[in-house]
Amino acid sequence: MAVVVPNHMTSNIAKRLKGFQEVVNGHRSVTSLLVTTTLSKEGGYLATSEILASEATAIFAVNDELAIGLYRGINEAGKRIPIDYSVIGYDNIDMCEYMEPKLTTISQPIFELGETVAHLLLERIEQPNKQWEEKMLPVHLVKRFSTRGLTKK
Fold first, then answer.
1. In which band, very low, low, confident or very high, does the pLDDT at 29 lie, cut at 50, 70 and 90?
2. 142 by DSSP, 3-state: which?
3. Eight-class DSSP state of 53
4. Is 88 helix (H, G, I), strand (E, B) or coil?
5. If you average pLDDT over residues 26-53, what whole number do you get?
6. Among 5, 26, 48, 153, which is least packed by CB within 10 angstroms?
7. Are 119 and 76 in contact (CB under 8 A)?
8. How many CB atoms lie within 10 A of CB 108?
């Protein structure tokens, strides 16, 4: 399995990676390749060569933009998603619905994120000495068609 991350991770992307690693580390049979690149479609595209040179057949891109670039690189290499490579993104941007095959991704509650940040900001303005508060909002997997099940060897 390959994980594609940006060269310079923000704290929220580092948390995505940490969560992913915690789950994967619970499965001893899974090893992961960490591929670093720029946080863009082009970065995903450029990361493809390193993945193709590895034994990885499943890819977690820490955002959908990276996944879009991976689609291009995988396609240009003559490989197919999900037949040769399973790909999962993160963010559930609208473009996921227009890709072929449609991208399986992890969706964040964007509206609720904005709403929560606004409430926290207003509270901070009213109470400047208020203690730091962190809120975690649930995400969910949007199953589409860019992954396939594992087969036993």
1. low
2. strand
3. T
4. strand
5. 90
6. 153
7. no
8. 16
What is residue 40's predicted lDDT score, i.e. its pLDDT?
A: 97
SS (H, E, C) 14-36: HHHHHHHHHHHHCCCCCCCEEEE
Residue whose entry in the numeric block shows the structure tokens 């999900």:
82
pLDDT digits (tens, 9 = 90+) for 127-146: 999 898 888 889 999 999 99
> From CA 38, how far away is CA 5, in angstroms rounded?
8
How many percent of the chain have pLDDT more than 70? 95
Judge contact between 58 and 2, C-beta under 8 A.
yes
- DSSP SS3 for 56: coil
> Residue 3 corresponds to which amino acid?
V
- Parallel, antiparallel, or unpaired: how do β-strands 33-37 and 2-6 relate? parallel
Give the per-residue pLDDT at 75: 98
How far is it, in rounded angstroms, from Cα 37 to Cα 103? 20
Predicted local distance difference test score (pLDDT) of residue 102: 97
Q: Which two tokens stand for residue 63?
A: 């955002």
Alpha-carbon span 113 to 116, nearest angstrom: 5
Domains belonging to the chain, first-starting first, are 2-108+138-142 (3.40.50.2300)
